[in-house]
Amino acid sequence: MSDPVGSWRPRRALTAMASIGWALAAASAPAQTAPPFAQLYNDTRNAPHQIALDAEVDRAEGLARQAQARPNPTLSVMTENVAGQSPYRGFDRSENTLQVNQAIEIGGKRSSRIAAGTAGVVAANARTRDARLAYAYDLAIAYGAAEIADRRIELAEDEVDEASADMRAVRALVQAGKEARLRRLQVETEVNALRALVDAARAERVGAYARLAALAGEETGFTDLAEPLLPRFETKTGYGPIDPLQTAPYLAAKAERDAARQRVSAARRQANPDLTVSVGVRRLETDKANALIAGLSVPLPLFDRNRGNVDAAEADLRAAEARDAGTLLNVKAEIAAALALNEAADARMAAADRTLLTAQEAYRLARIAYEAGKSPLLELLAARHVMGAARGVVLDAAAARLEARARLAHLDGTTITGEPVQ
Signal peptide span per the entry (predicted)? Predict the structure, then answer.
């Protein structure tokens, strides 16, 4: 399919002042060309958003490693039977003990904690993939917005060129006495108004490129795009299918649910008391002899059975299960909507193409009729306005198709250009 958005006639220069002003504005700050979208996305690994996502996974992995740690042993030194009354006034009858105490986790506390940490890493990776897909969607929309901003400038400049050509035709007819001077003033006023629209479109372009650079983590900014994105999308006969159970949002919610279950298990096992084994050696100064000592202690779970943490973990689990079920419903609805929107976007694009072709032909015939004196100026202006509106409709349809493709790619687990996101 041809790309009517990019098939507008080559632009002619506007005015010297506008060109110089735009050149000075572009040269006032260092900038660069944005690479093709796929390369730009791959180059954003050091963007602040991506770094934050990597840190979230690193945090979960650190917690998982910590969950594997065993309790540290305790070393104690104790002296008895000293600094008392006779015969314990000195150190002659002292008993000195060197002891090592080691807590031993029983009841599956450590294994459940490790399982919860591992599930947390899985959940963090799932959340990160979903967030990367959302970032790829946002980047595609920003990239398309920059391209659309360029196209809007082209559209506005084309309208200025065509209005200027109409103005020259009107001036010729005024000089020949076939049109009133008022008509020339009307056309000149319209040309000036269209030139103001060009300036507004350029200002919008600056904002669009600034947002793209900020999202990509580029401080120098972009001035243009290395490769257009809009022409990549062709009309398709069908879309899908997409398995809702394999979408990133659902997999993230499912991983969160599984991690919550593991945390409940860990909280319940945390109530099991730890067994503390003590081993040491005691020096008996009275007998001038050494003796081994050993002990075993276990706390009585009379007051603290970790019920508050268990209740909190169970509440988190119920919330995670509800989010999991809700996410699945939302994903199914999103898939149905995305498939329908892509079909509609293709139909809208085809209709916009036909509308533009009809409007261009109507303007051409109106121009011929006006120059031949067979139609009034108002018909020519109306035909040109319709053609300008048709170009805007084509551009809006292209933007809608870009957004529809980006939504579908997000659900399908890829970027808008088809690269898988991990």
Answer: 1-33
What six digits make up the tokens of 86?
């006779």
Residue 98, domain CATH: 2.20.200
Amino acid, res. 214: A
Does residue 36 sit in the same domain as residue 148?
Answer: yes
- Other C-beta atoms closer than 10 Å to the C-beta of 45 total 10
What is the C-alpha to C-alpha distance for residues 301 and 270, in angstroms, rounded to an integer? 11
d(CA 285, CA 4) in angstroms, rounded, equals 102
Report angle CA 48, 51, 52 to the nearest 5 degrees.
85
Helix (H, G, I), strand (E, B) or coil at 101: strand
Q: Length of the chain, please?
A: 422
Neighbours of 112 (CB within 10 A): 22
User: DSSP characters for 235-282?
Assistant: --S------GGGSHHHHHHHHHHHHHHHHHHHHHHHTSPPEEEEEEEE
Which residues is 78 bridged to in the sheet?
97
CA distance 191 to 164: 6
Name residues whose C-beta falls within 8 Å of residue 30's C-beta, 6 or more positions apart in sequence: 220, 221
What's the rounded Cα separation, in Å, for the pair 158 and 167?
Answer: 14
CATH code: domain of residue 157: 1.20.1600.10
Task: Please give the chain's pLDDT, 422 residues, in tens.
Answer: 444 444 433 343 333 344 434 444 444 445 688 899 999 998 888 888 889 999 999 999 999 999 999 999 999 999 888 877 777 777 778 888 999 999 999 888 999 999 999 999 999 999 999 999 999 999 999 999 999 999 999 888 888 887 787 777 767 766 766 665 666 677 777 778 878 888 888 999 999 999 999 998 888 889 889 888 888 888 777 787 899 999 999 999 999 999 999 999 999 998 888 999 999 999 888 888 899 999 999 988 888 888 999 999 999 999 999 999 999 999 999 999 999 999 999 999 999 999 999 999 998 998 888 778 787 777 877 888 888 889 989 999 999 999 999 999 999 999 998 888 88
Asked if residue 16 belongs to a domain, the reply is: no
Residue 209's contacts (CB-CB under 8 Å, 6 or more residues apart) are 34, 146, 149, 221, 222, 223
Cβ pair 208, 149 in contact under 8 A: yes
Domain of residue 88: give its range.
Answer: 71-104+272-305
